[in-house]
Amino acid sequence: MLDHVDFEARSWIPMSGWPVDRNSLLPHYETAAGLLGIEDLQAEWPASAVLPMNGPLFSERCFLSPIPDLGATLRARLQAAKNVQVVLHATALRLDTDTSGRWVRSIEVASTPDRRFRIEARSFVLACGGIENARLLLASNQQMPNGIGNQHDLVGRYFMEHPRVKWGSLQICRPDAAIAFHVPSAEARRPYLSQAKHCDVTAAFGLALRPEIRESERLLGSRTWIKPGPCANDWDGSEALHYLAFWLRKGRLHRDLIKSGRTILRHPAGSIASAIDRIGRSRRWAGHFHFDTILEQEPDPESRVTLDTRLDEFGLPRVKLEWRVGPLVRRTLQRVQTIVTDEMRMLGHRSDVLACAHGTPAYGDDIPYRWVRHHMGTTRMSNDPRTGVVDATCQVHGLANLFVAGSSVFPTGGNDMPTLTIVALAIKLGGHLQQWLE
Ligand SMILES: Cc1cc2nc3c(=O)[nH]c(=O)nc-3n(C[C@H](O)[C@H](O)[C@H](O)COP(=O)(O)OP(=O)(O)OC[C@H]3O[C@@H](n4cnc5c(N)ncnc54)[C@H](O)[C@@H]3O)c2cc1C
């Protein structure tokens, strides 16, 4: 779940503040958790996993769904439902409104460039992901030249990701239960599992800054993962090996597979060292770790999705993405680096900020942020149409029967993992639509 503070307006983050708070979302979070096979959202975690109470960091839990494939989980229910028809291989192309521009009449759909049809309905929900939701609204510009829901030029703006930086090393000098809980592997946690209900591998723990620190130092949210891994020189090869193994296991010829293969050829020493380390680690408690920090980013209107002049196979404009990461992210990262390494040294371990994987110092101006495929903000939520595309019910301002689901509605992104909130908001929207349609 997002933290309470993630929903609040924070004076140091322009355009922050959701029109809903966490308490009002809690019932929907619980339903969402049930759907995703998460047993107890509010369970306490064991004292051994908690970092010193008087320190600046706390252990923030994240649930890993044991049944993340909702297609498989819900298929039978969708097939059995009398009021649901699922149409596959159908690409939504454009929405058509009536002449007033306040009511969506139909959606144009294509299964191939030559096979097009229309779907009419009383209401429509866009749930095409954080980039495509904006693209569809912008491309639906027959009646409204700026696109649908874009009367204040907000659609596509405020695009946010979770910038990610791998930056530091940690060497454990003695067995440490608190660190072990933060390592996402069963081997590391096994010695401590018996003490901990609900702390098996379906939960992961990251290091987060306490809300008081975020507020007093005017920082963004962040979560730092402690990951077992090779020494810094081997990072590139190690990561490539990880992706290669992932896509080989999936049996899919993904472009990452080819990219990873090339990286392994460029960094053979690191890849071999990492492979040996991986095999060895399954039999022993690894002592080497690195830090991977995932950050919230401040909303920026110039970070945006627009339409390109190039067309796709359906003759529609492709998307152009300009992802900008602001200075507050850099300042937050620098504070996180200092706080985390200090805290690790206080716990009696060796810890340092290291040069980043691409040879650029993590403290430099040109931080090589990577993204984590969380696309947010392009149809942001606000009850004021001048600052948001959708209102608190996820209805597009000015269009009575058009709604948006997905993280494109997030006004700010929290520190990580959007999907539980996406599902909770979708469930909330479902309840609203049920009432609306009755
Ligand atoms: C590799 C990877 C790992 C991730 N790991 C995590 C994680 O551990 N935890 C987490 O919380 N999140 C994770 N995410 C993010 C998570 O997948 C997204 O937050 C989530 O899937 C977004 O849900 P959504 O339904 O809004 O969009 P999507 O899941 O993107 O679904 C949108 C759907 O709409 C379809 N679509 C798009 N355009 C059209 C169109 N024009 N017509 C018809 N259909 C269309 C797409 O094909 C897709 O099926 C990960 C993402 C990736 C890629």
From TrEMBL:
Signal peptide boundaries: none
Domain of life of the native organism: Bacteria
GO molecular function: oxidoreductase activity, acting on CH-OH group of donors
Domain Glucose-methanol-choline oxidoreductase C-terminal: 299-426
Pfam families noted in UniProt: GMC_oxred_C (PF05199)
Keyword ATP-binding: no
Keywords tagged on the record: FAD, Flavoprotein, Oxidoreductase
Gene3D superfamilies: FAD/NAD(P)-binding domain
Essential cofactor(s): FAD
Family: Belongs to the GMC oxidoreductase family.
Protein name, UniProt field: GMC oxidoreductase
Species assigned in the record: Rhizobium loti (Mesorhizobium loti)
